[in-house]
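In this supplementary section we document a worked example of the pipeline. Step one takes a protein sequence of length 112 as its only input; no multiple sequence alignment statistics are reported here. Step two produces a three-dimensional model, which step three serialises into structure tokens for compact storage. The input and output of this example are shown verbatim.
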Amino acid sequence: MRTDHIKNRNMIMQVVLTIVTLGIYSIYWFYSTLKELHIANGKEDAGEILWTILMFIPLANLFALWHYSEECAAFTDDKYPTFLMFILWIFFSPAVWLLTQLELNNASTSPA
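The serialised model returned by step three reads:
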């Protein structure tokens, strides 16, 4: 698994940026972390822009959330199963944000 491209992000600053930008930062976060997950999982150029756009289309957004959940599960070797992450996306999305970012930050600081 490739992790040299993963960016370490400050969790508190992410919350501040989300509040200051009225949620626009969370769209950027979804796109950029999905791209990092794709690359780490060996899927170069896997259509992150399309998945991000699908987030705004009713019903299609469920497919985008499922896809993100699958990528996160693959990245963590099912530490957080796809179904669990998907349910968290629907009922309490900040938990997905926290779990995903913690795993990405751990991967960014660990030796390759």
